[in-house]
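Q: For a teaching session next week I want to show students how multiple molecules come together into a single three-dimensional assembly. I've collected the sequence lines for a complex. Could you give me the predicted structure tokens for the whole thing so I can convert them for display?
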Amino acid sequence: MNFSEEQILSMAPDESSKKSGKELANESKWVKREVSERALWGECQGSGKLPYQTQVDLINVAFKCSCPSRKFPCKHGLGLLLLYARDKKIFSSATEPDWVTGWLDKRGERDEKKLEKKEKEKKIDPASQAKRQENRLKRVEDGMMDLRLWIKDIVRNGLLNIPGKDSSYFETIAKRMVDAQAPGLATMIRSLQGTNFYQEGWQTNFLDQLLRIYLVLEGFPRMSNLSGALQEELMTLVGFTQSQEEIKAEAGVRDDWFVLAKRVDKEENLTKERNWLYGQKSKRYGLILQFYVKGQLPEVNLLPGSCVDAELVYFKGANPLRALVKEQFSVTSETSIEGLKNWKEISEYASRVHAVNPWMNHLPAIVENVVPVITNNQWLLKDEHGNGVIIDHGFQNSWKLMSLSGGKPLRIFAVGRENNFEPLGAWIDNQYKLLV
Amino acid sequence: MKLWEDIINKATLGSGKLPLKSSDIPEIITQKYEVFDSQDPEEDFLRFSSLIYQYRRAGSLPLNFQHIAHAEAELEIKSYCSPKASGVLNTILEEDLMPFLKLWIKQCASKELIVTPELIPALLDIALRKKEFRKLIRDISGKRGEWLCKLNLRWNFNSSSTDQHAVWETGNSEERKELLRDLRTNNPGEALELLKTTWATEGANEKLTYLEILRINLSQSDLSWLESLKEKGQKVNAAVLDLMKSIPTSSIVAEYSNVLKNAINIKKGKALLGMVNKTNLDVSDNLTIPDIVFKSGVEKLSSDKNVSDNQYILAQLISAVPPSFWNDHLQLSAEAIIELFQKEKKTAFYIPALAIASIKFKDINWSKSILDHADPTIIDSSVAPMINSLSGKDRDGYARKFLKEKPREIIQVMIDQEEEWSLDLAKLIIHYTSNEIYNYNRSFYRPAAPLIPVAILEILESFTPTEEQKKVYWKNQSDELARLLTIKQQTLQSFTA
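A: Of course. Below is the structure for the complete assembly, covering every listed component.
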């Protein structure tokens, strides 16, 4: 598997680890450099008497090192993988030593044990569970009544004064939704609060989100009239979680999943990671969401631009995107990706998705033969038929995209809706370049 | 979508002022869904606008950009640098290691390679901020870079001569200064011609600024114009004169030379009862100095009681004529002339003035002769500037020779150079700086690292200071130096086949 430096450095816990990792990506620092089909290991002379033993799981990318660092991955892990990415020839193929085999085997066992433990925990009294569910539904309905009043208040007074409202205006009702055990609605309200009021056309973004919330309030009491998939979708939007163990127990989609992009947002101690994947055979997109607090590790490490043979299980819902990695088999290097031919096809695809899921907001899309163009200080993505979309105002790398393109059409991966998309990656000479 | 715009207008004002009615919904929707007004205008707004929102989302089409043209970049002639080299450049850019950027670009250019497209915008942004990088970056940005510069006017640094005239005539003070400075650096004659076009209309302050810029690449070809100037302002006249004094063939330098010709000559005599020939320098006590010399800024009176007025005047004149004057005048080599001056205390007094002249007129041979043969205690303050005026190996060699006597000054001179130090010089400097850890920290090693040979990496530990309290500091600094030298090593390796 070919890892790019960019991919590897994106895993560094901080800037100083990046720096130190790069420094250790030097042949002379490693007294031993070896590789097998599933792992990479080496010995690095540190300040101690014995060299540090560093190992990298190449299939489900993970690191282990005997150094005392609390950072993860440590600079040795990053340095070793960087060195491998730069020059594979300096790593000799070898049989895994005991300290590598031991670690890899333990990782496998640990995953199995986790599953067993969770299965044991599953045995819950159904009667009390039903009672709890009933109480919760009642609370949610009460909360929704308050939310409806709040929305109608906005509608009556108009959007004109909304940008001047302080955060408590949104936060109070969001907290009310948390109390009403509808955290999904709280998130939707906070997203409303996050509207960029300085951007031209903010009213549309605000109203769209307000109407999506209204649609949840309207749909929830009529749940029994909806399809199973829409019911699941609605429950998720309100904030009813789906058990990950139950989802993982379902049959998944095994495919060569190309990792299109990774977005990491940090808020206080919580890190939210969004990984966009594309199944090369199934032609489906997947969104792997991971949340972890400081000091915790994400369950899976997905490197943008890499391709993993894995089984993904989707959450229940209407045309779901969110998925879990049920099992990862290997990292592959072969990619054959073909996107939709033009923006019209993307529109048609969006309409089809929207018909199934009226709450669908942003869509991932791979589009062929698109040229970035700048006109009157506005960035556009134009296809070969002369149709196109506007590049999201927040996108910072338009000139990088322009330079990659050189005015020639290229295949891009973008996320967006209607006529507004943000490119996150582009292929140039069949090589994937990240734009985030 | 007109319909949605109406919704937004109503949403902005609020249903209290402008309600949304069922009659506002187009027939295409009402044909399929029955809509009716209720007693609750807010509920009506939410219902109707939800319907139209879904209608809008489901039927969204891409925008028509057929009328918007786009151009393609020309095909590259040169090859791209390796992915490894791109990786190193990425590190350099992320860490803002400007001295390494220069090294990287020079390596890339020397191999006739160009940078990969994704990194060009970041480089052009640097060129925007740092002019000294513009040419270097242009050389490695290839056709793609040229194309991007045409699209992004902020990056369009290479304005044509028509643009230059426009900037010169209509630009603000800073833009004009920048233009003149760039032009003077790259095409001195053209800069002078441009300045001539508006000289008569410039104010005194502007004239002073532009004369200072003319100091860049000042040469004999500027002389006739400078001598032709008849300025009213005293300050401008002084600045013009000052420039002329830096041109060896100027009339004022000729005046100074004439005074010196009459004032200092070889005197041959006999010593040891006439058995040995004796050659000395004779310094005349009766100086005849034309007024023009004093008007040009030479001061008459010495403020030092140990220095006579005559000595003071002669020292000023010696420092203001090219040292090669003495070769012609005394018909001796530089070495012999220095020996002659040093023979007696009263003439050795003029050696520092000779050193100043060698620096001023950039006479490398004289600087080397002074450094080789003059008494170091006499030329003390001129050592570092003279070393600075030398080039390449000479500079390195003399820096090694004088490092012990003048470590701080010479290190300061050497850190401003672009050529890599010799291993021997680097060893001497690091040996000094590692013991002066409080004065030489990371902010020293960052610009110094590109000048230090990577071979130092292997012997970095040998510089550990003996004093215990300094060891910890040195460990941090040597770690940083090792990191920087590793980047240098990677840069060099990434361009070797």
